[in-house]
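Example record

Each entry pairs one chain with its bound ligand, nicotinamide-adenine-dinucleotide.
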Amino acid sequence: MDIIPHDKLLNLSGKTAIVTGGSIGIGWGISYRLAEAGANVVIASRNQEEADKTVSELNSKGWKTRFIKTDVADETQVQNLVSGTVNAFGSVDILVNNAGIYPFVTLEKLTAEVFDKVIAINLKGLFLCTKYVSRQMIKQGKGGRIINITSIDALHPSMIGLAHYDASKHGAWGFTKNTALELAQHKIWINAIAPGGVNTPGTGGKADPSFTANIPMKRMGDPDDIGKVALFLASDMASYMTGSQIVVDGGVLIT
Ligand SMILES: NC(=O)c1ccc[n+]([C@@H]2O[C@H](COP(=O)([O-])OP(=O)(O)OC[C@H]3O[C@@H](n4cnc5c(N)ncnc54)[C@H](O)[C@@H]3O)[C@@H](O)[C@H]2O)c1
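Structure tokens for the complex follow.
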């Protein structure tokens, strides 16, 4: 057995990653670490202004990122994302399904429209990106990595008002395991990261003291706490993992 040095294991040079929702929040943390490790990173999100800012920030470090405007819930746009990535960089080797929304609405006020929107982005979007990216990976014949950003809510509810979200994230975890089983024959390894509370624009970017008091580590997560684990799963450090979900929550689930 060869013991490969860790810096080589973590080197993603020559690989191309797509990070959905990769311009802000957790997605920013993931784009940062993958680009730093040498990957070409395509940020796929809906907001041009946010993405332009992140692309120029990361490219100013000499890294290679670019933006392809994409709504992950739209099948044609996802197909264009994959072909656009291949045109720009020649392959797709890593997919991070991070784009997601979490509107707080109790069941009584939850409308069918909001329910459908959450499922369309958090679950159908993950399906569409996995379908078209894995098709491309199979064509390339070199395997690949898919990382799905679920949530601790894929395992256990964190608060009232997220039933629709928890349904989408339980679905994402089920989808992770079944696709991992199906695509292992193509050397496509598929794992999930389940974050706890992370400071992002989506969560308001500021920790509520009563919330952090209940976290064993006594702080919210930072996007880089998730970015580092995504780098691990995208790299050859995670050489014997598929169909797993890594909980990154400062200990919340053990309370
Ligand atoms: N922040 C947390 O505490 C937390 C905890 C657990 C899981 N998560 C999950 O992590 C992921 C990122 O969360 P965040 O807090 O960084 O969110 P955020 O709201 O700060 O950023 C979300 C990103 O997704 C993009 N996006 C939204 N809808 C999209 C669509 N239809 N197509 C393409 N891009 C779209 C947005 O443009 C943005 O770039 C989500 O899947 C979320 O469910 C977050």
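Residues 20-21, 23-27, 45-47, 70-73, 98-102, 121, 125, 149, 151, 195, 197-198, 200-203 surround nicotinamide-adenine-dinucleotide (CB under 6 Å).
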